[in-house]
Specification:
The complex is a heterodimer. By secondary structure, chain A is an alpha+beta fold. Chain A contains two helices and six strands. Chain A has one domain. The N and C termini of chain A lie far apart (57 Å). Chain B has one domain. Chain B is 22% helix and 34% strand. Chain B contains two helices and six strands. Classes of the chains: A alpha+beta, B alpha+beta. Chains A and B meet through helix 1, strand 1, strand 2 and strand 5 of A and helix 1, strand 3, strand 4, helix 2 and strand 5 of B.
């Protein structure tokens, strides 16, 4: 029973390394630093040149804090209009995870 | 009875390991459309954009695919795996002079996906330049 409980704990801890977005390139457990789109519908979208970012940080899967909302990213980039949203996900052996929302616009 | 319980315990452990692989690394990827993968090698293109309501897809669209992400699993020394790269659509589009993005696709190259040895994930962007 303790064997099964230990594995459940490991699965829970390791699942905290993943992020749930529509697009996730091949993911790693050791080290990961990838940037990918969240918005996948374009239909002749003209993407502005300005960029804003907002991050949330997780430590050991126990503590997560920050603001990775679109509002915070818009404020960071001083945008009036958002054309596209993407993200950057970085982690080191799942100990520290940083999820960054990236918005593009004008 | 003890034999059945032991088998059940093994099955639960295997199911948890399987879900662990699905939820986390080991070269697994996620996209809106995921065709079946091969165990030894997988290389294919599939849609990223899935909403095509009146989207232009003519042959005179500009195509850009300069960026990809890489995944590598060190099975010799550390047994750790690493993933890096950017498939940021605006940067891919800008590199080819695309100012209006029409749609996007992705391409996956996975070598020995059964053990997650090496993989590349490329995003293809199609659109028009300014003035079109």
């Amino acid at each position: 029973m303790r064997y099964v409980a230990n594995f459940i704990l490991i699965v829970m801890l390791l699942s905290l390394c993943s992020c749930w977005t529509p697009v996730v390139p091949p993911a790693a457990l050791g080290f990961m630093n990838v940037e990918a789109p969240v918005d996948i519908t374009y239909n002749l979208t003209e993407i502005g040149s300005k960029r804003g970012e907002a991050s949330s940080i997780g430590i050991l899967g126990l503590l997560t804090f920050g603001d990775c909302s679109v509002k915070a990213a818009v404020k960071d980039g001083n945008l009036k209009r958002v054309d596209h949203i993407g993200y950057q996900f970085t982690h080191v052996v799942c100990m520290v995870t940083i999820y960054k929302t990236i918005v593009y616009g004008e | 009875m003890r034999g059945h319980l032991k088998t059940l315990k093994h099955l639960v452990v295997l199911a948890l390991l399987g879900s662990m692989l699905l939820l986390t690394g080991c070269g697994m990827y996620r996209a809106p459309v995921m065709p079946p993968q091969g165990l030894f090698i997988s290389t294919f293109k599939a849609p990223l954009t899935v909403n095509f309501n009146d989207t232009p897809v003519s042959v005179d669209l500009i195509h850009a695919s300069k960026k990809k992400t890489h995944y590598f699993h060190d099975i010799l020394f550390t047994w750790l795996d690493f993933a890096w790269g950017e498939v940021d659509v605006p940067q891919i589009a800008r590199s080819a002079g695309i100012t209006k993005v029409s749609y996007a696709e992705y391409e996956i190259l996975s070598i020995l996906p059964i053990i997650g040895l090496y993989a590349e994930f490329t995003v293809h962007v199609y659109g028009y330049s300014e003035g079109h």
